[in-house]
Amino acid sequence: xRMVKLGQQGxxxxxxxxxxxxxxxxxxxxxxxxxxxxxxxxxEIGCNFWDTADMYGPFTNEALxxxxxxNRREKVILATKFGxxxxxxxxxxxxxxxxxxxxxxxxxxxxxxxxxxxxxxxQHRLDPEVPIEETIGAMxxxxxxxxxxxxxxxxxxxxxxxxxxxTHPVSALQTExxxxxxxxxxxxxxxxxxxxxxxxxxxPLGRGFLTGTIKERADLEPGDWRLSTPRFSExxxxxxxxxxxxxxxIATEKDITPSQVALAWVLAKGDDIATIPGTRRSxxxxxxxxxxxxxxxxxxxxxxxxxxxxxxxxxxxx
Length: 318
Ligand SMILES: NC(=O)c1ccc[n+]([C@@H]2O[C@H](COP(=O)([O-])OP(=O)(O)OC[C@H]3O[C@@H](n4cnc5c(N)ncnc54)[C@H](OP(=O)(O)O)[C@@H]3O)[C@@H](O)[C@H]2O)c1
Hints:
Layout: E1 3-6, E2 11-14, E3 18-19, H1 32-45, E4 49-51, H2 60-68, E5 77-82, E6 84-86, E7 92-95, H3 99-113, E8 118-123, H4 132-144, E9 148-154, H5 158-167, E10 172-176, H6 188-195, E11 198-202, H7 234-254, H8 258-267, E12 273-275, H9 282-289, H10 298-310
Parallel strand pairs: 3-4, 4-5, 5-8, 8-9, 9-10, 10-11, 11-12
Antiparallel strand pairs: 1-2, 6-7
Helix pairs in contact: 1-2, 1-9, 2-3, 3-4, 4-5, 5-6, 7-8, 7-10
The structure holds NADP nicotinamide-adenine-dinucleotide phosphate (NAP).
């Protein structure tokens, strides 16, 4: 598996990591015993760049990873996030980037994760009420205290990325990027590249849609969060299926899966890009791990580029 250097401070991660969110929240039923088995398997194959957040669960996803880390913490490159406040009952309580909040969140995450350091700590969403320099200043203190190794941001604008990076070097920007979410290519990804900040593409499979396994709303369990999002309305799904057909066409020609086409397209976008497909299943973990950027020829990459650029996606990301 190709390794990606995220930022200039030297954090190296496998290009294909593991998104752990769905093991505890948002995507329907999950089972901790099965998830722990999957995390074992991920480590065995080398897929050791794990992504979580305090708000997944809320809180239970970090606790799950904390169990998986017992006696092998050093084998995992652990990324977590703070900034989206949720109550124990799941209630949404807004966004915070205040220095006190950052430090309290970090201590709480360390406890749940059963560790004394986080490899990559992201601000999940920027707080419009708190200057980014103040939040990053607090994160820099956490670096100095040895509680976190590297700093990341999620869904930041090009302007905020620059301000943050001037306060303390930022190693990674994590933002949605896939064949149906390409807006970062305009100014955000170029800015990250100019500053030497690595990019971590989340939801590279379009939250599952681009794999061809989710064709209609009935394919998702009642209560699945995706059912409440614009791109999973009946109308949007019917329309956006045409993009999936294109992905499937290339997959069939090459005798690989649509998920591998979608993932390879993201990976081929640059050596500075890592991605964290989320799964709860061994079969998908192995398919994703086996996906390399060069599975697609230059012509196939260009064909997908052109098709997805001209295709008008129905439905906002959120
Ligand atoms: N920073 C942020 O704001 C943010 C937002 C969203 C997500 N994330 C992170 O990014 C990670 C990945 O994003 P995501 O989970 O939203 O979307 P994703 O990776 O695009 O898609 C996940 C979905 O695809 C399915 N899947 C995975 N591999 C597959 C394969 N090979 N074939 C068919 N289906 C497959 C999964 O099914 P099963 O679950 O059934 O295996 C799941 O339903 C999350 O786990 C989370 O860590 C970050």
